[in-house]
Specification:
By secondary structure, this protein is an all-alpha fold. It folds into two domains: 1-178, Serine Threonine Protein Phosphatase 5, Tetratricopeptide repeat, CATH 1.25.40.10; 182-284, Serine Threonine Protein Phosphatase 5, Tetratricopeptide repeat (Alpha Horseshoe), CATH 1.25.40.10. 73% of the residues lie in helices and 0% in strands. It contains 14 helices and no strands. The chain has helices at 18-23, 25-29, 37-47, 51-72, 76-92, 99-114, 118-132, 141-156, 160-177, 183-203, 207-220, 229-245, 249-266, 271-281. It is elongated and about 70 Å long.
Length: 284
């Protein structure tokens, strides 16, 4: 699976003051977003915390940031313990439905996904989405990101029809809100959703649909807002897999060759290069 099939992590810091809550809305829900009434309400509650509780809330922020670091270091036990500590602090302050809890739930989902428990990862992904929907609009970037994370968990559980349906809905929401995003981010996010959708179509043997949605990714990647090299290479590799499965080895070879060229140029030591060479060789 390409890197687009992995959970997207959210920032580890938490909102902990009145001005920070409003200022943090745009990076939390996505560029171009505007504060909702729900976010303003939680912002007022956090601002009204006594000094001692404010210190505890900041402690939760620190625990969450530490958990993110542990997660990136693959220290699963430490990450889980720190995420749990942070959530318990929020629960005692009745703030376990705040934006801070979205970050924690998504982090726990990433933890369980990395450990191979994709059903539990899906549970935490869905909880994060449910919480975020109270603060963000359907077209906001955070909602799209969390939907893509759920689709990744569904794919890992071979629930391809459910992944396809969720991604189609996510793309509808994205279409409503894409003009709010900076162009470079719009291209990356739309590419991610279409990549995951193409992957679901491939598993369902819907090869024409897979080919069409992946070619649309190449169509939106134009200077100066091209896909990142890794994402472009992953898309080309997936196109090669689609063509191979559809019985079109010559087309598959062309896409694999293009992907190999990119992997060699940018990621010569990564596993994707060897994997793609193997796929290319099997066509012979």
């Amino acid at each position: 699976m390409g890197r687009w099939g992995l959970t997207v992590l959210l920032a580890g810091s938490l909102i902990h003051s009145t001005s920070a809550a409003v200022d943090a809305y745009e990076p939390f829900c996505g560029p171009g977003s505007q504060p909702t009434d729900a976010l303003r309400d939680i912002e007022r509650r956090i601002a009204a915390l006594p000094e001692e509780d404010t210190a505890r809330f900041q402690e939760a922020s620190q625990r969450s940031a530490e958990a993110m670091t542990s997660l990136q270091l693959h220290d699963w036990a430490s990450a889980e313990a720190r995420f749990t500590d942070a959530m318990q602090i929020l629960q005692r302050q009745k703030l376990d439905r705040s934006p801070a809890a979205v970050v924690i739930c998504n982090g726990l989902a990433a933890l369980h996904q990395n450990q191979g428990d994709h059903a539990l990862a899906e549970t935490f992904h869905r909880r994060a989405l449910s919480l975020a929907q109270a603060y963000c609009r359907p077209e906001d970037d955070l909602i799209i990101t969390l939907q893509a994370n759920i689709a990744s968990s569904l794919d890992q559980q071979a629930r391809y029809e459910a992944a396809r349906d969720l991604l189609l809905a996510a793309l509808q929401g994205f279409s409503a809100g894409e003009r709010r995003l900076p162009e470079w981010l719009r291209v990356q996010r739309e590419g991610q959703l279409r990549y995951l959708l193409g992957q679901a179509y491939l598993h369902l043997a819907e090869y024409d649909a897979a080919r069409a949605v992946l070619l649309e990714i190449l169509g939106i990647s134009k200077p100066p807002n091209e896909l990142l090299p890794q994402h472009l290479a992953d898309t080309l590799q997936l196109l090669g897999r689609v063509e191979a499965a559809a019985g079109r080895p010559e087309a598959a070879a062309r896409y694999f060759d293009q992907a190999i060229e990119l992997y060699r140029a940018y990621f010569p030591d990564g596993p994707s290069l060897e994997e793609t060479i193997g796929l290319r060789d099997r066509l012979r």
